[in-house]
Specification:
Helix content is 20%, strand content 30%. By secondary structure, the chain is α/β, with parallel strands linked by helices. It binds flavin-adenine dinucleotide and FE2/S2 (inorganic) cluster.
Length: 359
């Protein structure tokens, strides 16, 4: 049987077609390919959409579909329409466009004015901080600066087009030399390369800044930080910035790792605690040795126990959580049971990048 030529043309048109997404209430708009999520397309065009897990779980990216048709990839969690949510609710990290769209979204004004740059950077220092954690200092070209908000991340662009995300660990004031804390992922292409092959004076390409995990400086509420492993990196950036800006509210950091050796910069938060009376630091070990006197177990459970011991709940705090996706999800679910104001929960889940772009 011969297939009519017009069917090929129709298929070709469908595959190469782009749609337009119109945003309410800002009136902005951008083009979108049928195979990318609305969130990916928005970020690619520099629109500051809110998001967290990028896996359809946390709901941080939600908004409303006002007009148009959506598509969902089959291997993703069920779309919000299939859950118990108001009509039109859409998780933009999951939904794709099947037509032109009009959507309602709360764009984040704080990151709107930052320019996303692609730059070559020189590896100035490579320093091993633990068996599986490497610190890199990346120097920008002369006269170049990367304006970012404390807590944001950059993508490192690999030669084959893939990209890998890493949080900036230094405060924004030092915008010519970027500090990264990179955990070696077993079997990981890029982190393996960093540990085994990358040398000082090598050149990498970066793109950034990205992300909505940044300090909300207009809030005066007490700040509670939970870091898992190298989730300490953006928290370090935020805390150093907060100290320099002399933010006056109380702050506390719970750093969850397996063993003592994984607290790869333990002396630093201890020093902050000595210098700043309103700052508390609690390391939490999930595989504590017998001599360990501090908190043990899962970090989110240790946080809940610590608050309970002080007759506190989460309602008063702005909560910042960063690290492995499972930890971020567990923390969100558990803190919600203990009075968390969901609008005051900010997170970055260290997801693996999707094979194609990782965007
Ligand atoms: C916003 C953001 C900020 C980040 N910041 C930091 C940071 O500051 N420091 C840091 O150490 N890390 C950070 N990460 C995580 C970091 O990007 C990954 O560890 C890194 O991309 C791993 O790259 P790789 O090429 O070594 O691993 P890959 O080669 O991509 O994968 C590593 C291993 O995991 C497996 N794998 C791949 N995908 C999955 C999956 N979905 N589920 C389970 N296993 C999978 C692979 O088979 C492979 O064995 C961040 C991630 C995000 C999204
Ligand atoms: S559900 Fe979309 S970012 Fe978490």
């Amino acid at each position: 049987m011969t297939v009519p030529k017009y069917l090929f043309v129709l298929l070709w048109l469908t595959l190469t077609m782009t749609f337009t997404v119109y945003l309410e209430p800002s009136g902005h708009h951008f083009d979108i390919d049928p195979d990318e999520t609305i969130l990916d397309a928005a970020l690619r065009h520099g629109h500051a959409f809110p998001y967290g897990c990028r896996s359809g779980i946390c709901g941080a990216c939600q908004g409303r579909l006002l007009e148009g048709e959506l598509n969902y990839a089959t291997d993703r969690p069920p779309p919000p329409g299939a859950r118990d949510m108001p009509r039109g609710t859409t998780f933009f990290c999951q939904a794709r466009a099947a037509s032109d769209l009009i959507i309602e979204v709360k764009e984040i004004t704080a990151v709107e004015n930052l320019t996303v740059k692609t730059l070559p950077v020189l590896v100035q220092t490579k320093e091993q901080l633990a068996d599986d954690v490497m610190r890199l200092y990346l120097k920008l070209p002369q006269d170049e600066h990367l304006r970012f908000l404390a807590g944001q991340y950059i993508d490192i662009l690999m030669k084959d087009g893939r990209r890998r995300s890493f949080s900036i660990a230094n405060m924004p004031r030092n915008d010519h030399l970027l500090e990264l804390h990179i955990r070696h992922v077993e079997g990981g292409d890029f982190t393996g390369y960093i540990f085994e092959q990358l040398r000082e004076k090598d050149v990498l390409r970066i793109e950034g800044p990205h992300g909505n995990f940044f300090l909300r400086e207009n809030s005066t509420r007490p700040l509670l930080f939970v870091a898992g492993g190298t989730g300490f990196a953006p928290v370090k950036s935020i805390l150093e910035h907060a100290f320099v800006e002399e933010m006056s509210q109380s702050m506390r950091l719970y750093w969850g790792v397996r063993g003592e050796a994984d607290l790869y910069l333990d002396a630093l938060p201890r020093q902050w605690a000595q210098q700043h009376p309103d700052f508390r630091y609690l390391p939490v070990l999930s595989e504590a040795p017998p001599h360990w006197q501090g908190s043990t177990g899962y970090v989110h459970e240790a946080v809940i126990a610590d608050l309970a011991a002080r007759n506190e709940d989460f309602s008063a705090f702005d909560v910042y959580v960063c690290g492995p996706p499972a930890m971020v999800r567990a923390a969100f679910a558990a803190f919600r049971e203990h009075g968390l104001d969901e609008a005051r929960f900010y997170s970055d889940a260290f997801e693996f990048q999707a094979p194609k772009t990782g965007g």
